[in-house]
């Protein structure tokens, strides 16, 4: 069985090896984007005196990036959708390089904040492209695994990159850490240009209006699952430290380490299952996430329950984004995946914001013990949407469209 290359019309046999170099370039781009976004959060005490502001205002450098990414994903993707994919991808990497270089050299908070906005715009554009590029590099039968390889860069950045970047900043200085990130982005430009195929943009006559992409069969269901899962997840994850204190488990660092390590395992398992049993894998992941919440709500104070539950939660959540992203590419088609993913990027960031806000309200009111019970119905809603949308959005097997 073979499929046809979208670049030159050549046959791509389903048994051909994955284009590892190109996929790893995209994965490294994802790794760099996440590290660029989150590194200031671990450097508040070091950056604040150098820029002459409070630690809270350094925290706004993360907020500004997220807001710019949220605001830019849809309009920039729509504006650039007709251009060849590789130059746009290279442009986003140059945006990261420029932003991180400015942060490394700047002594002005205003200039640093402006550079972070540039990075956020680059990030919003990058996230809209990664899954679509990965999907177009392989036959449909291997699409899920390719996307899993690329999105593994996110997991590795969260579990290893941010702690390593913080440690590097402690050893050689925070400015050097951002300088290294800028250099990595420049090196990625060459890697991407050499190994990521030059896919064309959407031809004018083939472009589907944004609103129609959002209403393609299956797309609303996938976006709903994204929103419900992220809100529910973020309700708990944002406030895992006070919840650990509530459960009389004082080692928050260990809890986060267990979650991060488990997500890496979850991504690996997903890579094995995503092209064979995508629906079963997603139902299992969401079901496990849902099952963990009442366990935390009822028995988090029992010795051993919190770390085991958090590990299972990380295992389940680690694979869920890849499964949902693959479903979105399937229902939108690789050619429209950039636009569909820009919608998902916006929904994803909205879910993070709403979940964090909701968790904060719950923490200030009923308290940390109510967090799992707040998250549970939201994750259950995501599970229900998947269960009810077998035909259009979440079929049992992969198709070759």
UniProtKB/TrEMBL annotation:
Instruction: Read off the InterPro entries from this record.
Output: MFS (IPR011701), MFS_dom (IPR020846), MFS_Efflux_Transporters (IPR050189), MFS_trans_sf (IPR036259)
Q: Which Pfam families match?
A: MFS_1
Q: What is its main location?
A: membrane
Q: Which residues form a coiled coil?
A: none
**Where does the Major facilitator superfamily (MFS) profile domain lie?**
22-392
KW Transcription (keyword) present: no
The membrane-spanning stretches of this chain are 20-38, 58-80, 87-107, 113-134, 146-166, 172-192, 213-233, 253-274, 281-306, 370-388
Membrane protein topology class: Multi-pass membrane protein
Does the record bear Cell membrane in its keywords?
yes
Q: Which GO terms describe its cellular component?
A: plasma membrane
Report keywords, A-Z: Cell membrane, Membrane, Transmembrane, Transmembrane helix
**What CDD domains is this protein classified in?**
MFS_NepI_like
* Molecular function via GO: transmembrane transporter activity
Q: Where found, per UniProt?
A: Cell membrane
Q: What is this protein called?
A: Purine ribonucleoside efflux pump NepI
What's the gene?
nepI
């Amino acid at each position: 069985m073979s499929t046809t290359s979208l670049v030159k019309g050549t046959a791509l046999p389903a048994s051909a090896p994955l284009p590892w170099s190109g996929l790893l370039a995209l994965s490294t781009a994802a790794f760099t984007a996440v590290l660029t976004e989150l590194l200031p959060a671990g450097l508040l005490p070091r950056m604040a005196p150098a820029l002459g502001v409070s630690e809270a205002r350094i925290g706004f450098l993360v907020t500004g990036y997220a807001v710019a990414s949220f605001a830019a994903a849809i309009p920039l993707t729509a504006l650039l959708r007709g251009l060849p994919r590789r130059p746009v991808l290279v442009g986003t990497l140059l945006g990261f390089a420029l932003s991180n270089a400015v942060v490394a050299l700047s002594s002005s908070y205003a200039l640093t904040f402006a550079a972070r906005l540039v990075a956020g715009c680059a990030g919003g554009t990058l996230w809209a492209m990664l899954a679509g590029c990965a999907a177009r590099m392989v036959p449909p039968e291997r699409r899920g695994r390719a996307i899993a390889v690329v999105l593994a860069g996110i997991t590795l950045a969260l579990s290893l990159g941010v702690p390593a970047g913080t440690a590097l900043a402690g050893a050689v200085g925070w400015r050097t850490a951002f300088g290294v990130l800028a250099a990595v982005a420049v090196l990625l430009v060459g890697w991407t240009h050499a190994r990521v195929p030059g896919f064309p943009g959407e031809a004018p006559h083939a472009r589907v209006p944004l609103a129609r992409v959002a209403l393609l069969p299956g797309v609303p269901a996938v976006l709903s699952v994204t929103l419900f899962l992220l809100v529910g997840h973020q309700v708990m994850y944002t406030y895992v430290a006070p919840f650990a204190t509530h459960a009389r488990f004082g080692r928050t660092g260990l809890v986060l380490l267990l979650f991060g390590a488990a997500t890496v395992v979850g991504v690996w398992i997903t890579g094995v299952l995503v092209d064979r049993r995508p629906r079963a894998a997603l139902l299992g992941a969401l079901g496990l996430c849902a099952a963990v919440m009442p366990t935390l709500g009822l028995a988090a104070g029992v010795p051993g329950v919190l770390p085991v539950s958090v590990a299972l939660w990380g295992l389940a959540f680690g694979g869920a984004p890849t499964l949902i992203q693959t479903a979105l590419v399937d229902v939108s088609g690789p050619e429209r995946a950039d636009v569909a993913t820009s919608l998902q990027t916006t929904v994803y960031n909205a879910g993070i914001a709403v979940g964090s806000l909701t968790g904060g309200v719950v923490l200030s009111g009923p308290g940390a013990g109510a967090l799992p019970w707040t998250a549970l119905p939201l994750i259950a809603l995501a599970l229900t949407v998947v269960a009810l949308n077998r035909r259009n959005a979440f079929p049992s097997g992969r198709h070759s469209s």
